[in-house]
Structure formats: structure tokens, C-alpha cells
Design a protein that fits this description.
11 helices; Ferritin; 75% helix; 2 domains; 307 residues; mainly alpha; globular
């Protein structure tokens, strides 16, 4: 069972990462709709704003509480996040709450003191997040069903909609467990996280491959190779979990190396997009978004490698 200190820290750290991811999912959906589905675009904007409000309150509660490892990992924000938001706002005309990014840049780590008032505050933040997740999960499910039934056109791949739906469900699963004070950093969770994030990394690679300009043959090949590598690692992690043996260090170490490599690739790609050196239809914020997810997974893998 989690201590109060760990409950507060792990809850806030989870929200700092995932609430930003969710608000960006809403944005990616928003810009993918056609004029016919303007009501869906409006609903996506509402969800984006709601997650921004949640993130603002999480940031206010997090200063002096979260770990230095989290703040230094590049999963909350990266060196490119603010520029990516500004560029994306320029291209789409949709405003971003960049003050949240600036506030996150100023967060400090904490000593982990017990604070009953903070615990009550975190419990309420978790409840708010779960309510919002119910909303965005229903929204994503509705869009995916319409797209698969050929009742809606969107510029987002069906797999991307399914991909972001899985991430919302995963976030929901983690918060439910934290509300129950369950430890989420044990051996079983290490397997589940590796399976989940290896699949996510594989799909990122395939999305990048599909959004590059056809002339970017070298980048296309690199993205394609990453997709194959993470497909292999997903299978290996599933196989290790099914055998119910002690954690397979080889799979974890291979995932660690592959994730370090793909996050370098994503960082270079995001920088290239921002500097107009990569030809693609990748919106700048999407590059930074996938980089943060790789940074998040890389931090988890370093923890699991020492279990």
C-alpha cells in the first residue's frame, strides 16, 4: 500500500505527464475534422480546455512535491515544447496556454513531507481526472466507431485514434489504482508497461513514416526500422510476461537502448520540423508530443532495469 508521500508524488507526476498528453490528443482530433463535423471540433476544444484547467491545478500543487528525476526526464516538457506550441498556434490559429509550459519550467522538486491538506487536494484532482477521462474516452470511442463505419472522415489515421484511446484508458487505469493506494512500480507492472509502451513506440514510428514527405527516403527508412524493432520488442515482452518468470533483463535492456535511440530520432526530427529542415505534414506539436512519451518510457525503463 502506498504511503501518503508516494500517493501524492506518484499521482501528481502521473497527471503532469498525462494531462498534457490528453489535452494535446483533443487538439489533434480537433484539427482533423472537416467543416461538416464542426460540432465535434467544438467538443474537442472543450475537452482541450478542461484538461488545461486540470493541468494548471496540478502544476499549482506539484511545486516542491515531485521528484527531480521526473523534472529532468523531459517528459513534462522538453526544450522544444514552447516553440512547438507557438509554431502550432501560428499554423492552426488555435491558441495554446503557453503559460502552463512556462510554469512547468519553473517547478522544483521536493523533500516528500507528509501533508494531509495536499493529500485531500490530490484525491480531488484524481477524481476530476477520472471524470474527464470518462468524457474523452467516450468521445474517442465515438469518433473511432464513426470512422470505421465510414460515417466520418478525419485526417487522423484510424490507428492513431485507437492509439490515443488506449493511452486514455491506460491513464485511467493508473489513476484508479493510485486512488486505491496500490503500488504501480512492481514486477507485474513492469511487464505491462513494457508491452504497452513498446507498442506505442512502434506505432509512433509508423505514424512518422506515414506523415513524412515521400522524398524523405532516409528518414522514412529509419522510422520503418524503428517500427519493426519495437514490434519485435512488444512480442518479446508479451512472451516474457506469459511465461511468468522473473523479469527478462535482456528484453528490458534492449527496450532501453531502442527507446534511447528513438527519442534521439524524435528530438532531431522535432528540431528539424521547427527549423523547416524536414519535409512532412507533421504538425510541430506532434513531434514534441511523441518525444515526451519516449522520455517518459525511458525513465520507467531505467527504474525497471533495477527491480
Amino acid at each position: 500500500m502506498l504511503s501518503r508521500i508516494e500517493f501524492n508524488r506518484q499521482s501528481l507526476e502521473t497527471h503532469l505527464f498525462f494531462a498534457r498528453i490528453m489535452k494535446e490528443h483533443a487538439f489533434f482530433l480537433q484539427i482533423g475534422f472537416t467543416p461538416r463535423d464542426s460540432k465535434y471540433a467544438m467538443r474537442a476544444e472543450e475537452l482541450k480546455l478542461a484538461f488545461e484547467e486540470l493541468l494548471a491545478d496540478v502544476i499549482a500543487a506539484s511545486n516542491g512535491v515531485v521528484s527531480s528525476d521526473l523534472l529532468q526526464s523531459g517528459e513534462v516538457i522538453t526544450e522544444y515544447t514552447l516553440a512547438a506550441e507557438n509554431a502550432t498556434e501560428y499554423f492552426t490559429g488555435i491558441p495554446f496556454a503557453t503559460q502552463l509550459t512556462e510554469a512547468e519550467a519553473g517547478l522544483g522538486c521536493g523533500s516528500g513531507q507528509i501533508n494531509l491538506a495536499l493529500e485531500r487536494r490530490v484525491v480531488m484532482l484524481n477524481r476530476r481526472a477520472l471524470a474527464l477521462l470518462d468524457d474523452i474516452i467516450k468521445f474517442k470511442n465515438n469518433i473511432l466507431t464513426n470512422v470505421l463505419d465510414c460515417k466520418m472522415y478525419t485526417t487522423n489515421y484510424p490507428l492513431l485514434i485507437e492509439h490515443i484511446l488506449r493511452e486514455a484508458l491506460f491513464y485511467q487505469h493508473i489513476i484508479h489504482r493510485l486512488q486505491n493506494r496500490e503500488d504501480i512500480n512492481n514486477l507485474r507492472d513492469a511487464y505491462e508497461q513494457e508491452i504497452f509502451w513498446n507498442q506505442i513506440m512502434a506505432e509512433h514510428s509508423k505514424f512518422i513514416r506515414g506523415l513524412l514527405d515521400p522524398s524523405e527516403e532516409e528518414l522514412f527508412k529509419t522510422a520503418n526500422d524503428f517500427g519493426k524493432e519495437f514490434d519485435r520488442l512488444t512480442f518479446a515482452a508479451k512472451e516474457a510476461m506469459d511465461m511468468s518468470r522473473p523479469i527478462n533483463r535482456q528484453v528490458t535492456e534492449e527496450s532501453l537502448i531502442a527507446t534511447q535511440n528513438i527519442r534521439n530520432f524524435k528530438a532531431q526530427g522535432t528540431e528539424g520540423i521547427l527549423e523547416c529542415k524536414v519535409k512532412s505534414i507533421i504538425i510541430p506539436l506532434l513531434g514534441d508530443h511523441t518525444l515526451r512519451e519516449a522520455n517518459h518510457y525511458f525513465r520507467l525503463l531505467k527504474i525497471y532495469n533495477h527491480l
